From TrEMBL:
InterPro entries membership: Azg-like, Azg-like_bact_archaea, NCS2
Membrane topology field: Multi-pass membrane protein
Matches recorded under Pfam families: Xan_ur_permease
GO molecular function: purine nucleobase transmembrane transporter activity
Superkingdom of this protein's organism: Bacteria
Main localisation: membrane
Keywords on record: Cell membrane, Membrane, Transmembrane, Transmembrane helix, Transport
Organism the protein comes from: Oceanobacillus zhaokaii
Any one cellular-component term (Gene Ontology): plasma membrane
Name of the protein described by the UniProt record: Guanine permease
Length: 434
């Protein structure tokens, strides 16, 4: 095993890798509760989504650890679960079953694009600044969703948004959870989000905002049935042939594509496994990521993706695929803790959304802001995602601005032909569908 995971070459060992795997798991365990809460709003069965989330995370992560041998942990992403629920199901009125078929198709296309090496070519064609901006913009979008679900940001008819009722007990509980998580993370406790949630639940129970669990059966229990969601993605494939679904599938693909590219580079650089500025075994890592999406869609969850929180485990020394294998084991164990779903409410999960926003937005530091021709498309990509409540719109606006500013700056040759093609596609998208 030591040899398979190249412990000696990487300068790591069994104990460090195990601690790293547990650390990353704890840093992202919130998704077990946040994902059912978010997809539940789309009408999906929360128990089934819980099981699908844990299994998709475990299977995707196991493939990443064993095949690509990266210390990267996967789970259903918070950018795309919000897009799935709020834009696709609630906004466009598409049934969740059909939306799951869209996730499945996006995953299959991504696997095919990777196997044919087209995916790596497109990743190379997109300027680094825009890849960073997409990741950061998704972060802002997630944080905005979190602020709303906490009741901290609310509708205002004059200004569109405003501050919520800060005397409401549930809003106060969310603010308390946010502050506690921030304090823990700032003190260097990697699982700060997770511990913050536990503390909020306890405080919520003390103040009567959250029901007490009924003994041990309120904590540990049977694995919830997958029956309500399993296979729906396959059964509804016939419903995806509409223009709306075409745009939805392209968005799922695009977002997963950029998010994964940015996250893999960020985690691999931190782990010191980049070679000559490139990802070793890039194809394997990308296929592992997309396979997670395919498996997850069949089980019953929105797109599975590589998590920025993997940096938590890498921060404590994780370097090999064994870190991922340990985290995958933790997700399997977590399957037995579904009764906790009823006590992890929106006020408890909202801080997680807001803090993941901070983690993802940190990529902004690497954007070349002093180059105006780059700053403009990067800025619009980031800003338009929360303001239009659409990740796709953010990507589209940024990608339309990029060739324009570069052309005017006399740098037309630096823009890859794929980028011109994408700009035209996005302009057509706004004309005909916007
Ligand atoms: N990269 C990434 N990390 C996450 N952590 C939680 N959600 C996400 C996501 O959608 N993408």
């Amino acid at each position: 095993m030591k040899k398979y995971f190249q412990f000696d070459e990487l300068g790591t060992n069994f104990k460090t890798e195990t601690i790293a795997g547990i650390t990353t798991f704890l840093a992202m365990a919130y998704i077990l509760f946040v994902n059912p809460a978010t997809l539940g709003e789309a009408g999906m069965d929360k128990g089934a989504v819980f099981t699908a989330t844990a299994l998709a995370a475990a299977i995707g992560t196991l493939i990443m650890g064993l095949v690509a041998k990266y210390p990267v942990v996967l789970a259903p992403g918070m950018g795309l679960n919000a897009f799935f629920t709020y834009t696709v199901v609630i906004g466009l009125g598409i049934p969740w079953e059909t939306a799951l078929s869209g996730v499945l198709v996006s995953g299959i296309i991504l696997v095919l694009l990777t196997l044919t090496k087209i995916r790596e070519k497109i990743i190379d064609a997109i300027p680094g600044n825009l890849k960073l901006a997409v990741g950061a913009g998704i972060g802002l979008f997630i944080a905005f969703v979190g602020l709303q679900s906490a009741g901290i940001v609310v509708n205002n008819d004059a200004t569109l948004v405003g501050i919520g009722d800060l005397t409401s007990p549930t809003v106060l509980l969310a603010i308390f959870g946010l502050i506690i998580s921030v304090i823990l993370l700032t003190s260097g406790i990697k699982a700060g989000i997770f511990y913050g949630m536990i503390i909020s639940v306890i405080v919520g129970m003390i103040f009567g905002l959250i029901p007490l669990p009924a003994g041990i059966s309120g904590i540990v229990g049977e694995v919830p049935s997958l029956a309500p969601t399993f296979g729906q993605a396959l059964a509804n494939l016939g419903n995806i042939f509409t223009i709306d679904m075409l745009v939805v599938i392209l968005t799922f693909m695009f977002v997963d594509f950029f998010d994964t590219a940015g996250t893999l580079v960020a985690v691999a650089s931190q782990a010191g496994i980049m070679k000559d500025g490139k990802l070793p075994r890039a194809g394997r890592a990308l296929v592992s990521d997309s396979s997670g999406t395919v498996v997850g869609a069949i089980l019953g969850t929105s797109s599975t993706t590589s998590y920025v929180e993997s940096t938590a485990g890498v921060g404590v020394g994780g370097k090999s695929g064994f870190t991922a294998v340990v985290a995958a084991g933790c997700f399997l164990l977590a399957l037995f803790f579904s009764p906790l779903l009823s006590i992890v409410t929106a006020e408890v999960t909202a801080p997680a959304l807001i803090i993941v926003g901070v983690l993802m937005a940190s990529q902004l530091k690497n954007v070349e802001w002093d180059r105006f021709e780059v700053a403009v498309p990067a800025f619009f990509t980031v800003l338009m995602m929360p303001l239009t409540y659409s990740i796709a719109t953010g990507i589209a606006v940024g990608f339309i601005f990029y060739p324009i500013t570069m052309l005017v700056k006399g740098k037309a040759k630096e823009v890859h032909p794929i980028m011109y093609a994408l700009a035209v596609i996005f302009i057509l998208y706004f004309i005909f569908l916007g």
